[in-house]
Write a sequence for this structure.
């Protein structure tokens, strides 16, 4: 496999130049803004939540990887784009099970492996409907399910997670429309995906950092390691 092979996957790109996708490239600044919001809250909460801090850094890595892909547009840059996103999805899923629902770490790890396997096998079935966005649909369903369950239990993180899911639904829709709308809108819609996806991640960071451990008193301060 030629890792330097060019990839022309988005409407905005009309050539191999580094800045052939200016909107798609610069809109990745939204991820750095989301990471900064998360880190500010993390610091305000004492800076002892290692998992929360790691997620904030990971959001910045997502922005860097996406910038590389939308400028270099090669196979290796594509990996730099998708791998940090995958780590965030499954890492956050595991953390949510522990932090929001009180699962033991081994149980959360097993559930996350099951979620990963289900996502892998579901992607080919979702592809006819969602195309290249099919791989993100399980993450959307997970956010809506987790947020919905928490809201039904009247737990505060649920509103943020559900808001993140709603934002991600709009974001995913715009990502999917990039190709179909290309003839009428040559700039594409992918940069909206970046901005709204960063908003989704910011909401998830706030939910994770501010969440009280499951079973704690409603008035207690979040205590994480």
């Amino acid at each position: 496999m030629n890792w330097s092979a060019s990839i022309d996957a988005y409407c905005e790109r009309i050539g191999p130049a580094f800045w052939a996708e200016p909107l798609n490239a610069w809109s990745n600044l939204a991820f750095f803004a989301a990471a900064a919001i998360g880190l500010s809250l993390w610091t305000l909460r004492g800076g002892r939540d290692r998992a929360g801090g790691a997620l904030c850094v990971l959001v910045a890595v997502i922005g860097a990887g996406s910038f590389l892909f939308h400028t270099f547009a090669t196979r290796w840059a594509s990996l730099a784009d998708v791998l940090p996103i995958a780590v965030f999805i499954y890492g956050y899923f595991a953390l949510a099970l522990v932090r929001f629902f009180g699962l033991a770490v081994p149980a959360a790890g097993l559930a996350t492996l099951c979620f990963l396997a289900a996502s892998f096998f579901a992607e080919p079935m979702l592809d006819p409907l969602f195309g290249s966005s099919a791989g993100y649909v399980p993450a959307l369903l997970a956010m809506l399910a987790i947020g919905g369950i928490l809201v039904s239990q009247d737990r505060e993180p649920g509103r943020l997670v559900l808001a993140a899911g709603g934002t991600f639904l709009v974001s995913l829709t715009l990502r999917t429309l990039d190709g179909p709308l290309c003839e009428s809108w040559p700039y594409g819609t992918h940069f909206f995906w970046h901005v709204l996806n960063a908003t989704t991640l910011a909401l998830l960071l706030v939910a994770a950092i501010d969440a009280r451990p499951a079973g704690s008193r409603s008035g207690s301060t979040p205590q994480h390691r």
